[in-house]
Fold:
Amino acid sequence: MTSQIVRALAVAACTLALASPVLAQADGQNSQRIASGQWALDGSVGFAVPVGDFGSTLNTGLDVMGAVEYRPAATGGIYFRAEVGHSGFGYSTTSEFISLGNPSPGSVSAWRFAANGLYDFETHTPLQVYALAGLGLYHLTNTFDLCGTAPFTSCSQSTNGIGFNLGAGLRYPINPIQLFFELRYQLALSAPFGVGNAPYFPFQFGVRYLLPR
Structure:
């Protein structure tokens, strides 16, 4: 899985490098931060890399997220995000399953419902750097397309539990929106079929819109 993370980081770096000439054309005066009492909407799509025992037989999967942000007046530079996200992973194909006429042995679905705290660092440039961390509820479903002994049947198991996430991101304004790239570590503290936990890294490319006050 280490090689998957390295490849994912390389893709993210290349994407940011290719996007930089376009971003440089944006008006620096539009580098507005979320203000006290203001709301924002986020949406992202990307990919997630499962790691540890959880990811030993899983492939990199698709990750999507929708969120709402709010900055209370009483919390200074810290503001908050409530998000719903989903990552889907497929199992690695093996010759055994191909010989049985099934190209994929199963899949894992991971839903998250999280509350995060965010903080923007001062960069004195339109580019915003921020960190975030939070807690959430995770719903994981592990489905095997071929289960048990012949004749094979499909079987699945789901778990619900708490978990946490932490990460960092880059955000750049292109009026009237802000583009962002975010890398996080997600850890669900329970997982189906006896796996103790479910760690994975979502790489997210998204859009943020600050609602007028």
In short: Residues 2-210 form a domain with the Porin fold (CATH 2.40.160.20). The two ends are 45 Å apart (CA to CA). The chain has one domain: 2-210. The beta strands are 39-50, 61-70, 78-90, 106-121, 128-147, 153-174, 177-188, 198-210.
